[in-house]
Amino acid sequence: MNLTSCKLAIRQYGPFTLLVLLLLTGWESAVQTGLVPAFILPAPSAIILALAEHHKLLLGTHLIATLQEVMLGFVLSVVFGSLLGMGMHMFRPLEKALYPFLIISQTIPLIALSPIFILWFGYTLWSKVAVVFLTAFFPVVVSTYDGLRSKGRAYHELLLTMGANRWQVLGKIEIPLAIPSFFSGLRLSVVYCVIGATIGEWLGGSQGLGYFSRRMAGNLQSAEMFAAVFLLSALGIALFLVIRLLEQIMMKKRGFFR
Amino acid sequence: MNGSLFVYKEVIKVTTILSIQQLNYAFPSSRTPVFTGLSMDIREGEFVSVIGSSGCGKSTLFKIIAGLLKPSGGQVILRGQSSAASRLGHIAYMPQQDLLLPWRTVLDNCLLPWELRRETGKEEAVQRIRGLLNRFGLSELEMAYPPELSGGMKQRVAFLRTLVSGGNLMLLDEPFGALDALTKRGMHRWLLELWGGLGKTVLFITHDLEEALLLSDRIYLMNGGSQPGLQELVVKLPRPRSYRINYDPQFIALREELERRLHESHLL
Fold first, then answer.
1. Can you list the alpha helix ranges (DSSP code H) found in A33-109?
2. pLDDT higher than 80, residue B59
3. Do B99 and A154 touch (CB under 8 A)?
4. What is the maximal distance between C-alpha atoms in chain A?
5. Which of A157, A172, A254 sits opposite B112 (nearest CB)?
6. Which of A48, A50, A185, B50 is 20 to 30 Å apart from A92, CA to CA?
7. Would you tell me which CATH number, out of the four given (1.20.58.100, 3.30.240.20, 3.40.50.2000, 1.10.3720.10), belongs to the domain A38-253?
8. What is a biological process (GO) this protein takes part in (chain A) (predicted)?
9. Is this complex scored with an ipTM above 0.90?
10. Domain ranges in chain A?
11. Residue B116 touches chain A, beta carbons under 8 Å
């Protein structure tokens, strides 16, 4: 039993792990032999050392600061995004008026627009939250809206013949059917949130992993910069997995996987 | 004179539950009608089948009766009322697919119609459904989820849900259409045994001739297209019926008659 699950794990993750190890070895030896200067590309061992050396600062201050911006921006975009998606689904004129705006808003290069948030909010937490909100908002709105309208025409009609009103159809049928699509939007948007927070911190501020990585890059301390980038990526993965877990708990509760 | 006329009117009032008059329908985007000139009367307690080839508009007819679609012409009168909105919620409708909600248990699926109205207490509603589940031979599946059920079981649960949806009139749109022949036979037997005690009026779509004869009091043949109207065939077989009545010579004669009529109207 244990042996077979071990085998399965090897078959599933073996090739990936092997490739990672190979790349890391190649990378490490390229730097160690002097093929690439360490300030251009630091060795993996140097990155780990930098992580260990600055772990208090990185984890205690900067990670917390970034996480705070991400969570605030994410929660705000989920609340307003799902409300707007639902509103667009329930009221056709709202959809007709707002959908083009949403598409157009996505063509605006966010980085170019971000300095305006500094003007509005100053170097506070809120200027970063605003960038996070803007990056995460769109996927939430679209996944909510698409999830609500996708399937369920037949279910909808069935409920109408049972005498249901529009809101009952929404609550009993459309929202449960929209959950998978809603969650895939959340997974996407939480990863965008980390990117948004990093951009926000680049623009100015005094803490956060984005701020730290930029400062280190300015000092040519690439190992430290890479350590921060590594943490940012790990943060994105962790948040992604948390959403995934939430989704599975919710689906299981509703009997989807039985 | 006057008195007898009054009595006649009274009889009509009591017995005719649904009356369809010169019904036409065409999809908004097309000029050729789906059907024209349909008229029928359904009386209280009857089991009436509608037979027709695929695409002749049987399901469309049901959607109009249920109040989901507005007819292009003609009238549907349910207990004297002719507005479509007044029919929504008063006619139980069972579409082709079972449409059980996969995230709800069998019991919760059957509670759905109650949740939308909340006319009685929850305990009462649950008791009623438990009683029916028991009677339908489904009591052990109360906490099961639809994906765990076989095709026949799903149809039984969907039938039960339709039964508690309210309204004496039930529209069943090919409820056994997706089942294999053996399961279907089992469902016929099951339905015939239950039928007498339910006290419901049923309008039933099928394209299975034996099924129609076995279950119905009357059969309407539907032409569809611009060929107007319906043909009626009365099934004079005694009730209660056994599912084995299809070996009865009377049944076989009716079947021949039905096929001859279908042939004559180019449906077969």
1. 44-53, 55-57, 64-90, 92-107
2. yes
3. yes
4. 76
5. A172
6. A185
7. 1.10.3720.10
8. transmembrane transport
9. no
10. 1-36, 38-253
11. yes
